[in-house]
Amino acid sequence: MANMPVRPRLLQDGLEMMSSAVVSRAAEIDTFSERHFTIADLAKMWALSYEAVRRLFDREPGVFRMKSRGRIGRREYATVRIPESVARRVRQRQVNP
């Protein structure tokens, strides 16, 4: 440890904040064993339209999207699955803005 250069406090704080963000993202990524919902499932549970739920999760981190290859001249489709922890996070954010 004596060979390590002394970093300015500001840089150390920045690195600590960055490392905690990386850890929290890693915790979000590990959703394999959770229950996963479709957009239709959540729309029914929350009494919202399909489109409203789709917009809520459009750019939400942690949502699983599998796009199908569209043929030339046809649109692409995507299969979307939303882990329970992500659904809870979004719902909490909507209830307590």
What's the structural blueprint in terms of helices and strands?
Elements (H helix, E strand, L loop, with lengths): L8 H21 L6 E2 L1 H8 L3 H7 L7 E4 L10 E6 H12 L2
Antiparallel strand pairs: 1-3, 2-3
Helix pairs in contact: 2-3
Which structural category do the helix and sheet elements fall into? alpha+beta
| Pattern of helices and strands | HEHHEEH
How widely separated are the two ends?
Answer: 45 Å
Rg over alpha carbons: 19 Å
Unreliable residue stretches: 6-24
Q: What number is the mean pLDDT?
A: 78
Strand residues, percent: 5-15%
- How helical, in percent, are the residues? 40-55%
How would a textbook summarize the main sheet? 3 strands, antiparallel
Q: How many beta-strand runs? A: 3
In one word, what is the shape? globular
**How are the strands ordered across the major sheet?**
1-3-2
- Per DSSP, the total helix count is 4
List the defining traits of the structure above.
3 strands, 97 residues, globular, three-stranded antiparallel sheet, 4 helices
Notes on the structure:
This protein has 97 residues and is of the alpha+beta class. The chain has a domain at 33-95. The protein contains four helices and three strands. The chain has helices at 9-29, 39-46, 50-56, 84-95, and strands spanning 36-37, 64-67, 78-83. It has a three-stranded antiparallel beta sheet with strand order 1-3-2. It starts with 8 loop residues before the first helix and ends with a helix. Mean pLDDT is 78; it is low at 6-24.
